[in-house]
Design goal:
Largest sheet: 9 strands, mixed
Structural class: alpha/beta
Radius of gyration: 20 Å
Order of helices and strands: HEHEHEHEHHEHEHHEEEHHH
Mean pLDDT: 92
Number of helices: 12
Distance between the termini: 37 Å
Strand order of the largest sheet: 6-5-4-3-2-1-7-8-9
Number of strands: 9
Oligomer: single chain
Helix content: 25-40%
C-alpha cells in the first residue's frame, strides 16, 4: 500500500469520529486476529494463564483466517496475529502469515518464546515474512522471570532470542524486527538496567513497558480498583504504573473507528482487551464483516463514546463507565 494511502486510512477514522459519524463507509486498515487462546505458560495476571473458562478455547483455522482476508484483505495494511494465547502453538501459523504476505499485509506476533525450537523451525518462521516478533520476557534472571512466567524457562528464552538474531543474519533479505517486551512489576523493576544490557549483548531492541493489572478484568473496573487488588505486583516507581496522567480527550476511545478484534472462533469484538466472546458484536461465520462493522452494536458503541443518545448496551458502555482502559 502506498504511503499516501496509508496516511489516508489513518486520518479518515479521526475525521469521521470528530464529526460524530457512527455508520462508517470504510473498513479498518489494522486489525487483530486471535491465533488461539491457549498457552504453554500460566502467567498470573492473564485470564488464559489463570485458566479462566469464561471464553471458549481453541485455535483459529486456516479456512477462517482465509475467509477474513478474502473479505477485507484489500483494505488491510497490518494484522496482529495474537491476543490471549501463544501464536506458535497454532499449526497453521506459517501458512496464515504467508497467505497475508502474498496480499501485501504486514503480520506481527507476540510470543513467550519459551519452547524448544529446531533450527529449521526458526528459519521457517523468519522466511515466512513476519514484519515484527514481540518477545514477552519480564525478567533478566531465571528467579525473577519465573515469578510471572510460571512454567517457562528463562535460559531457553534467552537462547531462542540469540538464535533468532543469528538466523536473521544468515537469511538474505530478512527484514523481520525483534522487540523484547519487558513489563515492569514490583518483583523485576530492579532488573531494568540488567535487561537493557542483556538486550544489547544479544543484539535485540528492548521496550520497557508499564505493568497491566489483571488483564481479564481491567475493563470492568476502574484502574484504581484494579491496582488496589493487584498491589503486590505494583512497582515502587510510579513511572511504571499503568494509570494515565494524560488529559482526557473529547473522544475517550477511537478503537471502534480504527480497528477490530476477531477471535479464533470468528466472534468480533471492539478491541483486544475484551476476553470473552459473550461480549461479541457479531460473528464473521454468521454474517459478513461489512454487516457487522455497521450493525446496531457497533453503532451503539460509537454513539456511547461520543455521548450520543442510544438505547443498546455494549461492552463499550461498561468500559466507559470504568473510565476507559487505564484511564484512572
Amino acid at each position: 500500500m502506498s504511503t499516501i494511502k496509508k496516511l489516508y486510512t489513518s486520518v479518515l477514522p479521526h475525521v469521521y469520529a470528530f464529526f460524530g459519524r457512527t455508520c462508517l463507509p470504510y473498513f479498518p486498515s489494522k486489525i487483530s486476529i486471535e491465533s488461539g487462546n491457549l498457552c504453554n505458560l500460566r502467567c498470573p495476571l492473564c485470564p488464559t494463564g489463570q485458566q479462566d473458562k469464561s471464553a471458549k478455547k481453541g485455535f483459529i483455522s486456516f479456512d477462517l483466517f482465509k475467509k477474513v482476508i478474502d473479505e477485507i484483505g484489500q483494505h488491510l495494511t497490518m494484522i496482529r496475529l495474537y491476543n490471549w494465547g501463544e501464536p506458535t502453538l497454532n499449526k497453521d501459523l506459517l501458512r496464515m502469515i504467508q497467505y497475508a504476505k502474498e496480499r501485501d499485509i504486514d503480520i506481527k506476533i507476540s510470543t513467550n518464546l519459551s519452547m524448544k525450537m529446531e533450527d529449521d523451525q526458526i528459519e521457517a518462521l523468519l522466511k515466512a515474512g513476519l514484519e515484527k516478533i514481540y518477545i514477552s520476557c519480564n525478567g533478566a534472571s531465571s528467579e525473577t522471570y519465573l515469578k510471572y512466567h510460571v512454567g517457562g524457562d528463562f535460559g531457553l528464552v534467552m537462547d531462542n532470542m540469540k538464535r533468532l538474531v543469528q538466523k536473521k543474519r544468515e537469511i538474505p533479505g530478512c527484514h523481520t524486527k525483534f522487540v523484547w517486551l519487558f513489563h515492569i512489576f514490583k518483583h523485576n523493576e530492579h532488573e531494568i538496567e540488567t535487561a537493557k544490557e542483556l538486550a544489547q549483548i544479544i543484539g535485540i531492541k528492548i521496550k520497557i513497558s508499564k505493568m497491566r493489572p489483571d488483564m481479564g478484568k481491567e475493563i470492568f473496573e476502574t484502574t484504581q480498583k484494579a491496582l488496589e487488588r493487584d498491589k503486590a505486583w505494583i512497582p515502587d516507581n510510579s513511572e511504571y504504573t499503568v494509570v494515565s496522567t494524560k488529559r482526557k480527550k473529547r473522544i475517550g476511545c477511537m478503537l471502534p473507528w480504527t480497528e477490530t478484534m476477531i477471535n479464533w472462533d470468528g466472534s468480533i469484538l471492539p478491541c483486544c482487551a475484551v476476553y470473552s466472546e459473550k461480549h461479541a458484536f457479531g460473528n464473521i461465520l454468521e454474517n459478513s464483516f461489512k454487516t457487522i462493522w455497521n450493525n446496531e452494536k457497533y453503532i451503539a458503541a460509537r454513539k456511547e463514546i461520543l455521548g450520543m443518545k442510544n438505547d443498546k448496551q455494549t461492552i463499550c458502555h461498561i468500559c466507559k463507565r470504568s473510565g476507559y482502559l487505564h484511564g484512572g
